[in-house]
Design goal:
The chain is α+β, with helices and mostly antiparallel strands. The chain folds into two domains: 121 residues, Rossmann fold (3-Layer(aba) Sandwich); 160 residues, Sandwich (Tumour Suppressor Smad4), CATH 2.60.200. It contains eight helices and 16 strands. The protein has a six-stranded antiparallel β-sheet with strand order 6-5-16-13-8-9, covered by helices on one side. It has a six-stranded antiparallel β-sheet with strand order 12-11-10-7-14-15, with helices on one face. A four-stranded parallel β-sheet has the order 2-1-3-4, with helices on both faces. 37% of the residues are buried.
Length: 301
């Protein structure tokens, strides 16, 4: 690999260390030390489509994204079907895709791993036509996600206030009546938390289970069937100890297509790879097999 294009999320720049140097300077140096020329740009939601076209016009050997799952999803959406592989340097909150691709946690080791990684292709899921690479969450989950974003960087009294708001949300959030259709089979549920994943989840490691494969061509559906707040607390605890798959309070389905219906809602908040949107009901989920080329040091494929 001789030349790469790099897009970094400036909000993740503090994770790169060395505050005297800009993230762009650090990244250019990291790749340059290994004999690889890097064209580096900051991720700008207003201009990234144009920036990406210009970067790809230079015919790089790979396009590297330094950021979290939301930034990666935004870039990947524009690269579906491209032969230029996407590489991931973890610099977000959860870093789900980076972990499932087998990326090391520290930046120096991750760069080394990417430059020696084979190219593979992974599945991409969509909800109402919008792609995601990891998971899409419903019901209470996007609202908790908003609180998490509000708490980013917060300390002291502000963080305690946000924690109080989160606890009140969990306590008061109503159970939603949903019909979930998996490959034509209807399942009627009442829930406060549901997840659709791009390929089924495996048990552990906490707090977000990984996936055994990224190219199985199957959607996983997970619905919390909690009747009390205590049930929800137990399910959360089992997520952390890795035993959630055996809990009868979690319904599990797998299929190629999933539709989520509600007789009471015209719109629903959906959080896909950390990005929240209001989408029209019903929610239609599909999977596009092996639609994205990636650098995969140790992917679950």
């Amino acid at each position: 690999m001789d030349r790469v294009a790099v897009v970094y999320n400036a909000r993740s720049g503090v994770l790169l260390g060395r505050p005297d140097d800009s993230p762009a300077e650090q990244l250019t140096e990291l790749f340059g030390q290994r004999g690889v020329a890097a064209e580096v740009r900051a991720f700008d939601p207003q201009t990234f489509a144009t920036d990406l076209r210009e970067l790809l016009a230079g015919e790089p050997d790979a396009l590297i994204v330094v950021g979290g799952d939301g930034t990666i999803r935004s870039i990947a959406e524009r690269m579906l079907g491209s032969d230029v592989p996407l590489g991931v340097l973890p610099a977000g909150t959860m870093n789900v895709l980076a972990r499932d691709l087998g990326m090391p946690g520290d930046l120096d080791s991750a760069v080394r791993a990417l430059l020696n990684a084979p190219v593979d292709r992974i599945d991409v899921a969509t909800v109402n036509g919008l792609p995601f690479l990891c998971s899409s969450t419903l019901a209470m989950m996007p609202h908790l996600g908003r609180l998490r974003e509000s708490a980013r960087g917060g300390l002291g009294l502000d963080a305690l206030r946000l924690l109080g708001r989160a606890l009140r949300l969990v306590w008061r959030y109503p159970r939603m009546r949903l019909t979930i259709v998996v490959d034509g089979q209807e399942h009627r549920v009442r829930t406060r938390a549901a997840v659709v994943s791009c390929n089924p989840l495996a048990s552990g490691p906490p707090p977000m289970p990984g996936r055994q494969r990224l190219d199985a061509g199957t959607l996983g559906v997970y619905v919390a069937r909690d009747r009390t707040n205590w049930d929800l607390a137990v399910v959360a605890a089992k997520l952390f100890d890795g035993s959630w798959q055996r809990d009868e309070r979690i319904l599990r389905f797998e299929g190629k297509t999933v539709q989520v219906r509600s007789s009471r809602l015209a719109l629903m908040s959906v959080m896909s790879d950390g990005e929240i949107a209001q989408l029209a009901m019903p929610l239609d989920y599909e999977i596009r097999p092996r639609a994205l080329a990636v650098l995969a040091p140790g992917a679950a494929t």
